[in-house]
Amino acid sequence: IGRCYEMEGKFKKALHEYKNSNEMNPNLVWSTFHIGCVLAKMKKPEALDYLKSAYEKEKENVDILSHYADELVKSESKENIQLGIEILERAKEFYIGNVEILCSLAIGYEKMNRIDDAISLLEQANNYPAFFNNEFRLYQLAYYYEKNKNYTKAVEYFKNVLVINNESVRSLLHLGIIFKTAKEYKKAFKCFRSILEIEPNNTVANYGLGRIYQIMNDHDDEAIEHYLHCVKTDPKNIKSYVQLGITYLKNKDYKNAEKY
Fold first, then answer.
1. DSSP letters of the chain?
2. What is the pTM of this model?
3. pLDDT of 24-35, one tens digit each?
């Protein structure tokens, strides 16, 4: 029953059933494990305690091992991250080709500033269908390439994400920023426009379009429109206030220039 609720995304009900099972039989490792999994999905810090308990009972179980180590490397504690890396490095040698282990280990490496090692692992994982058909994993690899300033590969993989999900706002956002930085304004414009069709109030896309319109001659009115949308959606968006002031000043609208 707990598994059914979990698969339906009804985490509170799943947690209730798993805890009932755990009370009836505290030695049933799968109840402990799934309590940890559900708590992790709910972003609860106590998830780690349950996953650790399950791992200590069955250290060779790949599902338990990978979930526990994944939670470790996603924590903010360097000690936990390093422990997760050590568990995953050992597991990688036994469970060759396990995409979940490779990807979790990559997260650990990236958080310890070993970005080249993280990319190498994800490229290994990319040889398996469980990776290259997975939107999140492709995004992870694209993001790491972008972080490593390999923009050509980053663009390639962000585009691969869009093949799977053409409404991936975060991929469109990263592509738009990369293109804008490279002064490929038409491509950036297309990305930001696509985002606003999905999320009209996206401040980053509105700001990006404002900057592109500002760079183009005789499009200050459109730029102002997008900057105003930004400050309406996010009143603390300082960059938009600055650009509004600059644009109004350029057009000799001193009253609004002073205001913003």
1. -HHHHHHTT-HHHHHHHHHHHHHH-TT-HHHHHHHHHHHHHTT-TTHHHHHHHHHHH-TT-HHHHHHHHHHHHTSS-HHHHHHHHHHHHHHHHHSTT-HHHHHHHHHHHHHTT-HHHHHHHHHHHTTSHHHHT-HHHHHHHHHHHHHTT-HHHHHHHHHHHHHH-TT-HHHHHHHHHHHHHTT-HHHHHHHHHHHHHH-TT-HHHHHHHHHHHHHSTT-HHHHHHHHHHHHHH-TT-HHHHHHHHHHHHHTT-HHHHHH-
2. 0.84
3. 998 889 999 999
